[in-house]
User: Fold these one by one.
Assistant:
Number 1:
Amino acid sequence: MQIKINNQSFECQEEETILAVCKRNGIRIPTLCAHPDLLPSEGVCRMCLVETNQAKGLVSSCTQKICEGLEVRTETEKVNKARKINLELLWADHAGKCAFCEKNGRCELQNLAKEYGPDEFKFVPRRKELKPNDELDLLKDNWSHAVFDDANPCLARDSQYCVECRRCVRVCKNIQTVEAYGLNKRSSKTNVGTPYEMPLDCIFCGQCSVVCPTAAITEKDETHKFEEAVADPKKMVVVQFAPSVRFAFGEEFGQPPGTFWEGKLVASLKELGADKVFDTTFAADLTIVEEATELLLKIKSGKAPRPMFTSCCPSWILFIEKYFPEFIPDISTSKSPQQMLGALLKTYWAEKEKIHPENIFSVSVMPCISKKYEAQREEMKASGTRDVDLVLTVRELARLLRKKKIDPSQLKDQNFDPALGISTGAGILFGQSGGVMEAALRTAVEKISGKELGKLEFEVIRGDAEYRTAEIEIGSMKLKVAIVHEIRNARKLLEDLKAGRADYDFVEVMSCPNGCIGGGGMPQPTSPTARKARIQAIFTRDKNMPLRKSHENPAVKKIYKEFLGAPGSEKAEELLHTGYVNRKK
Amino acid sequence: MNIQKILLRFGPKAENLLAALREIQKENGYIGEKESKQVAEYFGISEAQAYSAASFYDLLETGKPVKKIIRVCSGGVCVSERSLEIIRQVERMLHIELDNDAHPKYKLETMSCVGRCDRGPVMEIDGKIFEGVRVEMVGEILKDYI
């Protein structure tokens, strides 16, 4: 089928929307509610209005399907006027304190305002247009239905910034199936919120904060804690950052998705005042060695009737604890890399460097909102105090750097501090869905077969399908594995297992789209293309690493020799493993 | 009657949700956290959805009402039929202010359209709806129902 857009002909398929055709051909249409991850669109923001020859009025291009003989005009006077008025209406109900807003410069509403410039605010009364009393009433009325939430450990919500685009409601319902948010009340009092305005009690994946176009839902900003710690002369600030962070961090400073910025990240952290910078990837290698050992034990102990789940994703752990507690015994007891490194920092490293654990301030930079919660869990106190004192998301770190006027692109690359900073390609793979599985297989297959692997890439489990299964042959044994990302698929998998429709030996789950690389604390905007570029960068990095198997990491070998003994030993059990709690209500 | 019993009178289908909520409101006086949890479980929907529905309708209460609430429609048609004057009249007669919580017994609120635009302006006290209210009638209504 052919349609005309702005007098140019374009080839397109049936059932496509006007917006999809425009996007593919590089014609920009502003959107606030439409999002590439959230299809089909709902058409609530009315920013994507276009003029067609089929309808008298304007139509929303994100919902309008194409038809034969359709002619679309995307930038006419009528269209621009409508967009401008709609924008003005959205602004009228928006807090609009841009200069102090966390999202300043990264807010989709602000960007649109810059583009369409509502030059006069007809819908916001000016001073002389109101009597003093009316003004106060208006303010009271506005405040009476504002909702805040900062009682949860991870996310901050402020409905005064909300434009009711419903992205968060949809991502929570359609992709994560948790349904923490609903659209409450009605008309001018409409609010996105939790039932009975209770503090958010979900799995804290933070996807709502990634898709939010304004500052209505953001990560809980904790950058001030970092500044305080750096200013405290007694504290030794030790920072670690996750594998996926280095592939996306550059986007906050104008680089294209997939820019590899490891050295720059270390340099900027040092510039901010960090005393030591370690690599979470090292702990990822450690996780693999522990997890592979656990898997081998499970397999050797006879035919394991139940699968083993990975435990790196705190949202996934919370999901099991809150909704499917019957699977708790099947989760690997290995801590996540963040917590392993945190525990080792305040025990092994502190002992070696003769520093009191209480004087270490351990910070981690994560792509994840949920890690904020994980670090606060009761069990995560191997050293007596909290193993990880502060978790910053990529967005928070970038905000801190901008505040301090540090431009990472101007800094010279620096290396990790060596003690806990050596890593392998296997650890790097942790950043994306399928990575933990592939890294674990590289170690497990070698350990089971006793032979060295020829080809390290497990192509059968790569790809970006959301529910992948494979059978890995190791000698005479067959290992059934499954990889899922996004909670809706994890739910499907658990229900499959429950009903006996499937059985697996090893299952990897990551809550966010495409794994950590699409995490809740990652730079905005997120889209399948951006995530693909980041994943490609991960694979390239893995290929270029001299060491690509976790158990060959010299630092890991050293730590077992000097401190932990062997994988699964008593000391490893104490520091690197954890337990889970039934939180079903 | 307990909530479970009320729920069992309805099939667990989406179209029965509003009817069930209304029945619960009638029995219980409001739809609180506990009730909405039961409703969500019975209809197989999330609590967020149950609360969204309950909070959408002005005639459903989501918290225990402590005062007698007088509502006057602020829909376009009712306003053009001078419902704002009725609001002023109620304010004058009961010495209260719209949306002000100060009075210990009464509260005056506006409500969204109840679909009786042809018989407006509409006001509501305690689930009882009055149609075609004129300013002169307000005194009578308040005397009878408060």
Note: The mean pLDDT of chain B is 88.
Number 2:
Amino acid sequence: METALSDPPRAGNDTAPSHPLAIEARGLVKRFGATTAVDGVDLAVPEGAIYGVLGPNGAGKTTTLRMLLGIIDPDRGVRRLFGHDDPHDIAGLIGYLPEERGLYPAMKACDAIAFMGALRGMALADARERGRALLEEHGLGHAADKQIRQLSKGMAQTVQLLGTLVHDPRLVILDEPFSGLDAINQGKLEVLIRGLAARGTTVIFSTHVIAHAERLCEGVAIIAGGKVPYAGSVDAARDRIPAQVRLETRAREGRWRDALPGDARREGDFWYFSLPATGIEPLLRALIEGEAGILSLSIERAGLHDAFVHIAGEAAARALEEDSTAEAGR
Amino acid sequence: MSDASPAGARARLPLWRAAWVIARRDFTAILLSKAFLFFLVGPLFFIGISGAAGALSAQAVGSVDSPRLAVALPPAEGRAFAAAHAGLDALLNLPEIEVVEAGEANDAARLLADDARNFGAVLGGTLAAPRLTGTAERIESWSGRVALLAAEAQGGAAAGYPAVALEPTAATVASKRSANAATATAGLILLFLLTMLLAGMVMSNLVEEKGNKIIEILAAAIPMDAVFFGKLFAMLAVSFVGIAIWGSAAGAIVVATGVLDDFSPPAVGWPAFAALFLAYFAMAYLLIGSIFLTIGSMAPTVRDVQTMSMPATILQLLVFFLASFAMTDIGSPVELAAVAFPLSSPYAMVARAAQEPALWPHLVALAWQVLSVVVFVRFGARLFRRRVMKSGPAPAKPGRGWRALFARR
């Protein structure tokens, strides 16, 4: 790693966060042979935040998370977790759920959680006791002594998630956590993630489903082709695109039309244009004075999807949509 | 490091504690599995293989210095006996002879105890009344041929075959050497079979983690070296459980049947031999096991594991043959090479323990093997870490060679 991380982090192009950072990364690069999987990624995740890494499959999300965790070392760049240059120095504070779920099939659910706790430094007996309590808390008390192979896929995934949390981590890293879950379990997972953040735990997760990031995250990093063209708050990402105004008037023609912004276009009975930088009020005044006869007017703030298209480009957005469709079809 | 660190930061588990977590899980998982029962009945097949190996053992024993006959007859009769031997040697399977000095003739016991000359029996008396001294089995076996040679030396069968007086003794150097060689061969084969049977299991052990992606959880939480060490030592512990169970069963059979009486006590004595055998098994297991585990880390499926294990299996066989060959000539350059080469060293030293009483070479050899184990395991763990997660530092940064091998990860 060549870069020193001495300046305040400025991940992406958002303003520097005011909270202490759970994760700082700058200029992360990882190559596998001739392929550059991650190419200069910057991240800044404040403590206690829910943060999303949003991008299509193959964009470099998993490789980025693996570098943050210390599973693989970056070829260049630096990452710092809670101020530690080596993630292993605070391995006991981190919980990690990999994209590819895996548990020992012959292990009992309670033992599987205890084993994961022991890996993070817990005494086995304590981890087993806590595992049992977590299973009870999540309605799986009856499955504590069942082997993993005897559980449904959803239950096994919950067991693994509880194993990720058994040691009460301060930072939880989830790689595509919603993948493979039905709508009900996705909802439960969202509640769980919000609960973790409410207790001050930092949660960072990767996803190719914009809706999850939009609903949960305060900050996102948009990643495409191994690069991060945007990292910052979701609001700031949406503000990258001016709000869209939809206007319906009784009159078709009139002097009021001169007041419409230059990008205004007519589609059927409606006019569409970007919200002027001066706000809507001057335009409203001109429409009224010009007797346009306003039938309806709505201002729609850009969604994260539009922001993604705007920031990452049409191709990345198409790939993202294809991934989401494929995921829904599974 | 900034002040952003949460109070009471919890670092990654140290290597040996993490290895303990892995070893504990693997050990209990294997012991509680149904497959372990199959593992325990494995020796039934093992006994079959041992039977076949016994034939090899007998062959090896036969190849160890053939005992000779000391001819302690009056000088003229000794020369006649030697001439008769020379004449008939091409026709009959006669033991080699050495006509001893007249002064030695009356001390058969000393001749039989002479380690350098390897006499199986001593022929005394006269051609008309020969007297054969040696172990009962040996002199009974040789008495007919001695009578024939005595008759021939006196002028042929017309002179009549003299009655050979037999004077059995407890043991001769030759019989001891031959029996020790049998013990050495048995120990060598047992060590080889146990290692081959047990060390191969570690290869497929890792495929489960790779197949169900647990490896990523492990890699995120603990040093990958710890996974390597944990798995290796868990399987070694499982092997010792197996050996304890099989050993108890075999011990009961040995006590009941007295089979052990057929084997000469090893030169270092049974207790030391048993202890050394276990120590050498652990060394052989860790050395070959680290190779197998490294191979396992590179194989994506069980089928690939089997294919990729072939070179390691052949290497094991070569090591076994080297040690088998070397044990026939203790102290020779070949034997010393077998002792020095880490993979064959445990086998060669087990054979040596059966044949040579000195214990200090074992201390030296064990120290050497421990060092080799450290190098092999560290090297294997390093490869393992790189292969399993395709991780590791950028190529240009870390040190290379020996320094890199011992670098902290």
Note: Chain B touches chain A at residues 1-6, 9-13, 18, 21, 24-25, 29, 33, 208-209, 212-223, 389-394 (CB under 8 Å).
Number 3:
Amino acid sequence: MKTPVTPSESPLRILLVDETFEHAALLKRALQDAGCKIAAHVSASADLPGLVAELKPDLIILDTESPDRDTLENLCVINRDQPRPIVMFTHDDDSDKIRAAIRAGVSAYVVDGLKSERLRPIMDVAIARFNEFQAMRTNLEKAESQLSERKEVERAKGILMKQRGWSEEEAYHALRKAAMDKGSRLGDVARQLVEITELLG
Amino acid sequence: MSMVDPAIRSGAWAAGSDAPEKTEVRIGFIPLTDCASVVIASVMGFDKKYGIKIVPSKEASWAGVRDKLVNGELDAAHVLYGLMYGVQMGIGGQKKDMAVLMNLNNNGQAISLSNQLKAKGAVDGASLAALIKKEPREYTFAQTFPTGTHAMWLYYWLGAYGVNPFTEVKNITVPPPQMIANMRVGNMDGFCVGEPWNARAIRDNVGFTAATSQGIWKDHPEKVLGATAEWVAKHPNTARAMIMAILDASKYIDDMKNRSSVARIIAEKSYVNTDFDSIEDRMLGQYNNGNGKKWQDANYMKFYNDGTVNFPYLSDGMWFLTQHKRWGLLKEDPDYLAVAKKVNQIELYKQAATQTKTPIPKDVMRSSKMIDGTVWDGKNPKSYAAGFKVRQS
């Protein structure tokens, strides 16, 4: 089970990725004033995956137009067990655009020049949204896998009923017995049966 | 118009009376040689012929392209085939119904290895696999996006030589323009990326071409013209106009006498931003692998090839799903055919192809033989995905 990132009174540890250091200085000061701790500030082509694994920041902040976004994307997909909330900052304060982006799934947006007292609530909202999203994802994956398992069992039952002339109940018992004998899951046995039948097709 | 039945609307279009719903379209692209047809459609004015204006928009990351498509900042984009299916299935991020309007190019990507590996005798797939087994350490390979085409070519190639890309080597994502710098400082041993970055690796003396993508899968699908399904449903006439303009541009680029001038245009700062020489040779099929071999490649990057490049074959879309499943990016088998039918806009494409006199293949599936000898023809996707010796799930 993934441990949720908790918004709390303790300082948030932040990994800041930005190429233009002088620009980031303002954001850095605002973040520090808002009670955040900058765990690291790096520019492009640093070993981001390594840094994230090492620092385990509460939040990663980077520019919407940074090419490094793809590097972090890999972390979300490959290391699914260690996702971190990502916050974008933008130089463009078109609120419609930001609202659309947030609806699209980015945890939060920070607009360049935002006052420090407004930063912390945004960070907390970002983390809350992220946790919600993760929980939703886990539930969805579970539901999808249960659904697909049920489908496989239905198909396997159908095959047995057709080929052996069994009743639905007999087919189900045969599958359950096979699963118990092999110490495997019902869904796995059903899938194997379906696959082998397809192969012999 | 939105109240009118879609069948009547397409009839109205056939009569030539259906104007684009939106006349100016922003099409995102990443600075790579294969953004050419989108750029040329705009630069050479093929868009005007169909009543639209294409505004190419240079983007910094594939994640940015995806977000901007989803939130509507971009109308369409030059985008990795596999990424479109990744978003459709919600791999690693938001899930959204997507639309592949047409394939933009075949071939023209490659896998480069560092000169350090060359010095140790790793010059192709087999010798690389032998080195990894003989001298174990953490070998690092980069691709451009976790669900994208380069990731899939790299994984397929390593897998074909018995190397598991997830357990036996480290694999990372690096933006294309940063590949060479990362290889130079020793952050990686190899990468898979689109041109001109493999040609540049040789010119910059950091690496060489160990395999071309056309050597992995001759005439493989690559970048597509992508949008969200919602956008296409709202703007079918604009979508058709975009396909027609880009089909015209694709024909123009595949006329070899135009290739050098195309290379010159896309090398400019506002597009790929590189020297012309890095782009031109491989666009003309003149390959030099940086390790003493020079050849004229018959399967160089193609944009049209009598329309076979552009048809959104269902089997091509399904292939990416089979690989996502193979590598555990998808945990369960999807309904491969149903997903591809939903994503690939065959009908819209056929209308555009008919109008531009682009030949349309008879079948929505095609058969391809890969580097490891396996044949993919769109049949039995589930057993195909599960049938690889090297796989994650």
Note: Chain B touches chain A through 38 residues (CB under 8 Å).
